[in-house]
Amino acid sequence: MLEKSITKHDEIITVLKDLYTSFNKVQIKAYLPLEQTILKVIAKAENHDDAAAWSNKLVMYLQSQIVLKQIPITKEQDTLINSLSEQCKNTNLNYVYLSPVDDSLQFD
């Protein structure tokens, strides 16, 4: 069971890094806050914080920013966000949402 948990944790980190790279390789000003937030979640995951919970929260944040600010994303980015969402869909989020979903300060 522990090995499965470690593997899932590593898979989430891999998707997070791929997602960061996908935003970072295109220099669009609107991407900068998204990139910074993804980096915060990567740091939390690498410090053995709950990667699934933070990633699930990140998905909600990214989706809200993309819709509210009409940020264009590629099919690759959409696929990575959906993959991350799928990997974290059974996460208990009762204790995580203490800030508005579209506030990047929730990741500090």
Automatic annotation (TrEMBL):
Superkingdom per UniProt: Bacteria
BP GO annotations: bacteriocin immunity
Keywords from the named record: Bacteriocin immunity
InterPro entries xref list = Ta0600-like_sf
Q: Which Gene3D superfamilies match?
A: Ta0600-like (1.20.1440.50)
Stated name of the protein? Bacteriocin immunity protein
